User: Fold these one by one.
Assistant:
Number 1:
Amino acid sequence: MAKLHFIYGTVGSGKSLQLLSTLHNYKQKGLQPLVAKPAIDCRFGENMVASRSGLKYEANLQLQPEQDTIPVEYLEDKCAVLIDECQFVTPALVDHLRHLSLNRDVPVLCYGLKTDFQTKLFPASQRLIEVADTIQEIKNLCRHCERKATMNIRIANGTPCLDGPIVQIGADELYQGVCFEHYHAMTAPLKDRNR
Ligand SMILES: [Zn+2]
């Protein structure tokens, strides 16, 4: 049985860069993984897996919002499955990936966020924590100090924001990875206002 891996980090921690690095390693060995990403994430153009470092690669498959399986034809001759922004897939797709690793003996590596800007687990990330063989954190510094970033904060029009849609894709100016102390300091005034 191959393994299901959940590799998570905050916004800007280099998750896509790590995916592209893994892809490069496979290709150097003459192997071709399937690269899939949710269609919802169109920051860098329809099909591109792109890192803030500037590296990018065209995904083989765009996952639609309600998609619960990967059609078998996409898996032919593929040595592994790499999922970018995996927090946006369905929990049912995570279960499907879990069985792919078992039944097809293909390793599955899922890269994404663990929690949203309201500190809650994304449903797919929760399912990955429940069923993955390995869970790896990509460490990243807080945007505002030298502690580790553990939270994702949403910045709207230059100020921290606790409401709005959970699924809103943005670049650096919309989300930041921050430590809990900075998350608390930046969001506490908003909570007081709502009380
Ligand atoms: Zn901080």
Note: Residues 142, 144-145, 147, 178-179, 181-182 surround zinc ion (CB under 6 Å).
Number 2:
Amino acid sequence: MYGMGFDHSFGLWFMARWLKPDLMIESGAFKGHSTWVLRQAMPETWIISLSPRHPENVDWGSVLMKRGISDLSQVLVFFDDHQNELKRLKHALNAGFQHLIFEDNYDTGSGDHYSLGHICGQYYIRGGGHSCFIESDEARIRMKRKRFWEIAVDRDELCGNGEEWWGAQGYMRDAFNHSNKAISYEEHFQNSRFVDSVLDVYWELPPVAGPSLTHQTRCSPARASDPIIEDGRFGLFQRLG
Ligand SMILES: C[S@@+](CC[C@H](N)C(=O)[O-])C[C@H]1O[C@@H](n2cnc3c(N)ncnc32)[C@H](O)[C@@H]1O
């Protein structure tokens, strides 16, 4: 298990400073790195840190009342617990939370839980729908990318036996992939319509800088937005598509 690296630590710090919440809730603390980042961003703000030992059904109304929080737009919730993000989004929505940060936004075909990145993998979203034909242009480009970037997802990783490309080979994974459920494309599509219907803003943090500067190689340059500070290697991935 890993904690957060440089890019996401900076992103979490930046968003906490930007939103200036009255309360920060964190699910998934591990050894406390993200707790420390939140504390650096907002030295005087309450942090509630949840681990697997806490019950899933927290009575948020009474927790917030105890802290004197009545405006839910002043609460920031940070998830790094590797749970199905659709499930977590519904939990947060039920509690009325509005500002959510998800740490792991896995790309289609990868990751140990169903992510917002998976949910955005739709034909109507640019770069979203996929082809599982072995001799397709996409399969060829994916094979090329794989030679340059270890975590790039090639056609064999992307597609299940029945050519299911959505989620992770047609599965909605949960809890570090200790549980998973096969979903149909229709269900996956409905999930994106649901998420679309409840989000005001969806924002993916760009890498702070190119990988030769930060030594961060856990996001695929082909799928992430441009680094804030480029290192010249990004062009290669843009050329590959
Ligand atoms: C990747 S680690 C978190 C890393 C941490 N945020 C950091 O920056 O170092 C995932 C954590 O999620 C916790 N976790 C697993 N299931 C959980 C659950 N249902 N609720 C809350 N935390 C959970 C694990 O115990 C683990 O500590």
Note: Strands lie at 23-27, 46-50, 75-79, 99-102, 171-174, 179-182.
